[in-house]
Specification:
Layout: H1 2-20, H2 26-45, H3 48-64, H4 77-87, H5 92-109, E1 123-126, H6 133-144, E2 148-152, H7 160-163, H8 176-184, E3 190-194, H9 204-215, E4 223-224, E5 231-232, E6 238-243, H10 251-254, E7 258-261, H11 267-286, E8 293-295, H12 300-304, H13 314-334, E9 339-341, H14 346-349
Parallel strand pairs: 1-6, 1-7, 2-3, 3-6, 8-9
Antiparallel strand pairs: 4-5
Helix pairs in contact: 1-2, 1-3, 2-3, 4-5, 4-6, 11-13
Length: about 350
């Protein structure tokens, strides 16, 4: 029994050491200290093991929350332009809006009178599937050198997925927002709310309520996750959102965002995107040199429009992936030095719908 008590005391001491060496808010520290005191009392009552698991798990999550840690923004407008040009073809109006966005961040950062109280506008990118909405968030994160947290809303069935469950419930954890910043390790990442129009219809009202709190500058400085049960400051994060359309988005949520419409790609734009952006990466991943895989000019119209008009590039990307795989197999099995796709042999490489 003495050995067992020593193990219990050691476990409790380890929890105390974790908390003492942390930078959590003082009020939360007092709250956690009370949990540890209650844990010490539970030793005599025989409920220690169950209580220890709950308390230690809670403390681990509390210590993961980045209460103060931040990354320093890189506000270089020329670098930003280069990154957006590298990852996005066309979309000039959308790219210009992001360049304006970064310009404002830079100018305000240079003015000590206003630098600290700035709330970055929340941009909502609205467009059809495959038009590059998510990629713009990735590019902005790269340009600013910020961490990126992506929260997918597709099929989200409950607001608790965002806000978390009470820690009194067995197996409960924080919601996706707090989990996201914990994984990022900083309190000022770019938080991408992806496809906010695609949550479950039954849960949509509650989810929109949480979104209002997240996106409202008057509220997100003290976002309260149900599991953590202590205000977390999200006002230093940059929020971006995407949607296919705005029909299912509550008016109160729309009022807190600036809508940017993503244009569809023309056939000619998709050909350029395929040749300059998509295909080089696919060839590199497959171990092919550019001269080993050639698509004749007259074939590209079939590649980009196999089923009629398509606003995005996902079908195009899948089509090229399949063609590259088939070419690799032919080169490996038959020892051909190259594969040339023509109108005569295109059915071998392109999907037949």
């Amino acid at each position: 029994m003495n050995d067992y008590n020593q193990i219990l005391e050691q476990e409790i001491q380890e929890l105390k050491s974790k908390v003492n060496g942390s930078q959590i808010p003082d009020e939360l520290r007092r709250k956690v200290d009370k949990d540890i005191v209650a844990l010490e009392r539970s030793v005599a009552l025989g409920s220690y093991d169950e209580k220890y698991e709950k308390v230690s798990k809670y403390i681990d999550w509390v210590l993961k929350v980045p209460w103060q840690a931040e990354t320093q923004d890189v506000l270089d407008i020329n670098k930003t332009r280069e990154i957006f040009e590298k990852h996005h073809y066309g979309m000039h109006d959308v790219k210009n809006r992001f360049l304006e966005y970064v310009s404002v961040l830079k100018l305000r950062s240079q003015n000590p009178d206003v630098a600290g109280d700035f709330r970055a506008p929340i941009l909502l990118l609205v467009g059809l599937v495959g038009t590059g909405k998510t990629t713009f968030a990735i590019s902005l994160a790269e340009a600013l050198d910020r961490k990126l947290v992506r929260i997918p809303f597709g099929g989200m069935g409950s607001a608790t997925e965002l806000r978390g469950n009470s820690r009194l419930i067995l197996g409960s954890e924080p919601g996706r927002v707090i989990k996201g910043i914990c994984e990022a390790g900083v309190r000022n990442p770019i938080i991408l709310l992806d496809e906010i129009d695609r949550s479950s219809e039954d849960a949509n009202k509650d989810i929109m309520g949480v979104l209002v709190e997240l996106l409202d500058p008057a509220q997100n400085h003290s976002f309260r996750d149900t599991y953590i049960d202590y205000p977390v400051n999200l006002s230093h994060a940059i929020f971006l959102a995407t949607a296919n359309n705005t029909t299912a988005i509550a008016t109160a949520v729309m009022d807190r965002m600036e809508k940017i419409s993503m244009p569809s790609y023309t056939d000619q734009e998709k050909i350029v995107i395929a040749q300059k952006y998509i295909l080089p990466g696919l060839l590199k991943d497959a171990g092919l040199r550019p001269e080993q895989f050639i698509i004749k000019d007259e074939v590209w119209a079939v590649v980009t429009r196999p089923l009629g008009f398509d606003a995005g590039i996902r079908t195009l990307q899948r089509t090229l992936q399949g063609a590259v795989r088939k070419a690799v197999r032919i080169i490996v099995e038959r020892g051909y030095p190259e594969v040339v796709i023509t109108l005569e042999n295109k059915n071998i490489f392109l999907p037949q719908y």
